[in-house]
Specification:
Helix content is 6%, strand content 57%. The protein has 6 helices and 38 strands. The protein has a 22-stranded antiparallel barrel. A 5-stranded mixed β-sheet has the order 3-8-9-6-7. A two-stranded antiparallel ribbon has the order 1-2. The chain is globular. The chain starts with a helix and ends with a strand.
């Protein structure tokens, strides 16, 4: 509690200091418009903690993956356990994630992208598909449904920066090769974006190769000033090898080695996915608008693992429909949002024995149906400098498992209807000036178990796993001046039925509810424009700083004979700091430096095993050739200190295989040509 009081004192001092800043009308740093809890509103007017990464900021990092770029955002941690095997954590939400993206709702170009079971295949995207990132941190169930971690809006269309043709080729360490062609074409009422990407890499560890092809076409038809149609088609062909976790001794001896058995059993992911969608937006006068997005997915998935061979076919459909109405009544501004979201999945999942990387006798075969519904209503009431937000949603989820083949017992059917989750949110904000705003919020959230947590790889069905529930109190301040942008937040979350992981003796990750947790934290993001002198040799200096402090502990957690109450939450470092400096020279050279620090991280619930703290330094340089054609040469180096660290730890791992080593010192270079 004393830390919370210190945070409040800091906030009072902060609000007093920034309110005293000189107010100017010009703006050097861009103030972006985001989705958040109020569509079409600027980020500094939203009563929620929102982090944003622009295409320009993404270009300051490696074109091969988004890890370091995303990790500059306060509260966001993107891990890479193998090349293209991503795990996103927002405010420590990855505690329950053995792989993939859990506890976070993801939308792509407005389309629901997270699967009906609650997981997200982020590895379907190359950097081309992730040009713009907006992250709402913390529970957003009143408007977006399940996900205690938050909501991610990923966009790459339409773009005002794209030329009709752009070709980019790059390569680097570990036999990395990237080649891409993209462009945006305008023709009458049509605007069309296309992209083709190829990426291959031998990997920084044994048995860690990647081969990925992405094909995207997105188009917008502007029917008239008030109606528009969007069309999206994405095809992904992805293969990557899984080296597996290492023990502390193996990690220290040779972090490039793979877990024994990974290569002989061909532990890997081989999947092909078609994702498609349509969006329709219309305006009826100045006050009423609607947006409708329909998406579909088909995935063919094969996953040989050390213990078995998994083969799935997933078919999904999703719909999100939202109405927005603005009105003014006696100097009071009212805004209403209402709508629904529906997702349905029809999946086939088969598990076989694995003999030298090839599927053997079938063990069990399931037909799976998932039905998820969300109904939401939100109102925002604005009077003078105050704004009150009230939101409420109803959430329904049903799983059906029809086990048609069972090599170990009789086939069975299993239906699970989760209780209706009614999720409220209340937020209040005060606009001190056009540049200063303070908000406070109280929000409920929940996170239902994913299908992989209920139906585990060894064939068992976890019939008793409950949804996580949590309540979050938040206090934040935003200052967006002409040279300084500051986002600061203090929050406290009380979670119940927290889902944690453990690994059995066969290496299968299993799940259990662990009682309650207390999560107290603060997040700070600061952007500063230090210099903007177009005539000088040194013509621009910008910096971005982020810092998180998390005091996350188990409140009531007893496992078998051990009581872990009061221990630090597994997998969550207490301190994370990022400092980025972007320097412009001679109008044609851009230099970007990034420093990252992560404190020690508990790897077991008893806190006896800790991952060491680490420091990283990355650099990127871009040079535009002084010729008529627009040609840029770029290059960079990551992990300049050659730090040995794990980027995606396995928590409570059986046999001590906690560590998923990250790349050592590595480089890349390439060329980009725009028509």
């Amino acid at each position: 509690m004393y830390r919370f009081l210190i945070f409040l004192i800091c906030f009072c001092a902060l609000m007093g200091s920034v309110h005293a800043q000189e107010i100017r009308n010009d703006s050097i740093l861009e103030v972006v418009t985001v989705t958040g809890f109020s569509k079409g509103e600027q980020i500094n007017k939203q009563s929620a903690p929102i982090a944003y990464l622009s295409p320009k900021e993404l270009d300051n990092f490696s074109p091969h993956n988004p890890v370091m770029a995303w990790n500059t955002l306060p509260g966001v941690n993107l891990e890479q356990r193998a090349i293209s095997s991503y795990r996103v954590s927002i405010r420590g939400s990855s505690i329950r994630s053995p792989f993939g993206v859990r506890d976070v709702k993801v939308y792509w170009n407005g389309l629901p992208f997270t699967e009906a079971n609650g997981s997200t295949a982020l590895n379907l995207f190359s950097n081309t598909q992730m040009q713009e990132l907006e992250v709402v941190k913390g529970p957003a169930g009143s408007l977006f449904g399940a996900g205690l971690g938050g909501v991610m809006q990923i966009n790459n269309f339409p773009s005002q920066q794209e030329s009709p043709l752009q070709i980019q080729v790059s390569g680097g360490s570990f036999n990395q090769l990237n080649a891409g062609v993209k462009g945006q074409i305008e023709s009458g009422k049509w605007s069309t974006f296309y992209a083709v990407d190829h990426q291959q890499n031998d990997g920084y560890r044994d048995h860690n190769a990647l081969d990925r092809q992405n094909y995207q076409i997105s188009s917008r038809y502007q029917i008239n000033d008030n109606h528009q149609l969007d069309f999206h088609l994405l095809y992904n062909d992805l293969f990557y090898e899984i080296p597996g976790g290492l023990t502390a001794e193996q990690f220290a001896e040779d972090p490039s080695q793979a877990r024994a058995g990974s290569a002989p059993q061909n532990s890997s992911i081989d999947q092909r996915t078609v994702f498609y969608g349509v969006g329709y937006t219309s305006f009826f006068g100045d006050n009423l608008s609607q947006s409708t997005h329909i998406a579909g997915t088909y995935t063919s998935f094969q996953n040989p693992f050390i213990l078995d061979y998994k083969e799935d076919q997933n078919r999904e459909v999703a719909l999100r429909h939202q109405w927005t109405y603005d009105m003014n009544f006696q100097n009071v501004d009212w805004k209403w949002d209402a709508g629904l979201e529906w997702q349905y999945a029809d999946n086939s999942a088969n598990n076989y024995g694995n003999v030298n990387g090839r599927k053997d006798t079938i063990r069990f075969a399931d037909d799976l149906n998932i039905d998820r519904k969300l109904f939401f209503l939100q109102t925002q009431i604005g009077f003078e400098k105050w704004q009150l937000t009230l939101g409420l949603s109803s959430n329904l989820l049903e799983y059906k498992v029809d086990r048609k083949v069972n090599a170990f017992a009789e086939p069975f059917e299993f239906n699970r209807n989760f209780d209706n989750e009614v999720i409220p949110r209340v937020a209040l904000q005060y606009q001190w000036t056009t540049q200063n705003m303070t908000f406070a919020s109280l929000s409920e959230g929940f996170s239902s178990p994913t299908l992989d947590e209920i139906r585990t790889n060894e064939g068992s069905i976890n019939r008793n796993l409950q949804a996580e529930r949590g309540r979050t109190y938040e206090l934040g301040h935003k200052y967006y001046g002409n040279r300084i942008q500051l986002d600061a937040t203090v929050f406290y979350s009380a979670l119940r039925e927290t889902i944690t992981t453990y690994t059995n003796q066969d290496g299968v990750v299993l799940f259990q509810n662990a009682g309650a947790t207390n999560q107290l934290g603060t997040e700070w993001g600061l952007n500063v424009n230090w210099l903007d002198n177009q005539a000088g040799v040194l013509n621009q200096i910008n910096s971005r700083t982020s810092y998180n402090f998390y005091e996350f502990t188990f409140d009531d957690y007893q496992k078998r004979e051990e009581d872990f109450s009061g221990n630090l939450l597994t997998g969550v470092p207490q301190h994370t700091f990022n400092q980025t400096v972007a320097i412009g020279l001679l109008k044609s050279v851009k230099l970007n430096l990034h420093f990252r620090y992560v404190s020690e991280t508990p790897l077991t619930d008893d806190n006896e095993i800790l991952a060491d703290p680490y420091h990283l330094l990355n650099a990127n340089i871009d040079y535009q050739l002084p010729i008529e054609q627009k040609v840029n040469l770029f290059g960079g180096m990551e992990n300049i200190f050659n730090t040995t660290y794990s980027l995606g730890n396995d928590l409570n791992a059986f046999g001590g295989r906690f560590y998923q080593p990250a790349p050592g010192r590595n480089f890349y270079m390439g060329v980009k040509w725009k028509l």
